[in-house]
Amino acid sequence: MVMKKIVVGISGASGAIYAVRLLAALAACPVHVYLIVSDTGAELLKMETGIEAPGLEAWLSQNTAFHKEARISVCGIGDFYTPPASGSFLHDGMVIVPCSMKSVAAVASGMADNLMLRCADVCLKERRRLILVPRETPLSLVHLENMAAVTRAGAVVLPAMPSFYFKPKTIEALADTVCARILDQLGIAHTLVPRWGEDHV
Fold first, then answer.
1. pLDDT digit string (tens) for 58-79?
2. Using CA atoms, how far apart are residues 174 and 182, in angstroms rounded to an integer?
3. Which residues are CB-neighbours of 122 under 8 A, at least 6 positions away?
4. Between vectors from CA 70 to CA 11 and to CA 188, what angle results, nearest 5°?
5. Is 0.85 topped by the overall pTM?
6. Within a 10 A sphere around the Cβ of 140, how many other Cβ atoms?
């Protein structure tokens, strides 16, 4: 079985829990994650979760069901020589979670002045799956038009809007309702939340 390769970006928006929960779910699978964290994303990760960006892989290995074949490669935000920066590198999708409105705007305008944005730009030009998970409210017309632009370009805009159908009991379970939709978009099997119509408690 060929190991899936997923690019994950964490940008400077509130909602670091979504990134941590998604990475935990990916780390439980035989998946190779290429992780890119912006400077502001690292600051918010520490502020909101207490996790230092450089120690994220170690935290996941100690606190999650880390699959023996899972791999996490941390890529520097300015390292344009890392594999996902090239269109010749094949992978199975990219997600920016959380995705700041600045990042949405940059992707919409084709600005690729850091590795995260370059990888997103590559996804669009190579017609690969790109998922942007914005967490902002309220939304201005500029935000909406930028999200429409990236959608027309081929990205999936998946706002961090948790669902309450199955009465999640914890913040983590609530965040997982969003992560489940991200994993569905990436084509990765999971059991994070029940599916509509399935038997559930």
1. 999 898 889 999 999 999 999 9
2. 14
3. 84, 85, 86, 87, 128
4. 70
5. yes
6. 10
